[in-house]
Amino acid sequence: MGVFDINGKFFKTLTKAGDFIILTLLAMVCSIPVITIGASLTAVFYAALKMARDEEGYVWKEFFKSFKQNLKQSILIELILAAFAAILLVDINVCAKWAANGGGTLMFAAIGILIVLAAVVLYVFPVLAKFDNTVFATIKNALVLCMHHLPQTISMMIATYGLIYFTMQYVGIMFISIPLIFYIDSFIFSRILQQYVKKDEADTDEL
Fold first, then answer.
1. Under DSSP, is residue 131 helix (H, G, I), strand (E, B) or coil?
2. What confidence tens digit (pLDDT) does each residue in 81-92 have?
3. Is residue 124 within 8 Å of residue 102, measured between CB atoms?
4. Cβ count within 10 A of residue 55
5. pTM of the model
């Protein structure tokens, strides 16, 4: 089988690239209400993790299957994390004003917690996509995993938030940069999360 055969690596790569672009478009459209951003990200990773294991079917079917299944939990998780982030940002802003009077230490502590939260945000929706758990168990597992797999976490944070920043500067590249983020993260997550899946489990997994 040659490289340019219809079932060869070249066409498989093109197909996957197209699928990630489709997932990006679906995520953008389904994130318009804002409150459904978490559900959209969960659905993207549900489909993307299957693609990483060469188990994908029709990506739009996988996307909407997960979107419906995880809508309530993802909204709750999104609201909890957004509220926590808002509190931290207010604390950082207040502490910055107090820095001259000893508030600097509290400010750096809040920044450190915010960085950890940014790591949890990377993990929480793929974890929700992969495992059946309660809202707080999903957040807790995301925290544990991002600390336990620190090298991968740092790599994904640099790639993800770096590409997001780059996209904000050059919006025109979003249809390349965002699918690339999903590809990089799903590739890494598939190897991390698969370690915690029991071999005799079916499609529904528990952590």
1. strand
2. 999 999 999 888
3. no
4. 11
5. 0.86
